[in-house]
Amino acid sequence: MGRYRLHVNGRRETVDVPGDTPLLWALREELGLTGPRYGCGIGACGACTSLIGRQAERPCVRTVADSTRERITTIEGLSADGDHPVQRAWLELDVAQCGYCQPGQIMTVVALLAANPDPTDAEIDEALRDNVCRCGTYQRIRAAVRRAAELAR
After folding, report:
1. Could you tell me if 82 and 94 are in contact, meaning their C-beta atoms sit under 8 angstroms apart?
2. pLDDT per residue as tens digits for the range 144-153
3. The CATH number, out of the four listed (1.10.287.950, 3.30.420.40, 3.10.310.10, 3.10.20.30), of the domain defined by the range 2-77
């Protein structure tokens, strides 16, 4: 068991877990941040996607010990009032069906738009290709990415 300090959603948090604990478990079980979802545990589905630094990454395949020097942002830390352009676009276009994958989709799009404020459809598809939506709302997701880019301008 170790004591690790994480910088999560703008706050310093301490977790007492073994260093090889997946970051996702620390976020969900130790810190109560349930926005990043458990989907596959191997980084393949994108349900847990959060920002590590400015990059969209999968906390299910990252250890707590490897995360102490990074700023971590989960969906809960994106906007206190849901007013982030990506969140607004998601609501405006009624993207979510079941909603399980949506936090990971949103966080991937936040990273995409930070790096590329006006992505093409091909760039959107490439950025989201490893984020699985079992309900198949991909067309609404792509439309929401375009709308979020408009809102951010």
Report:
1. no
2. 999 999 999 9
3. 3.10.20.30
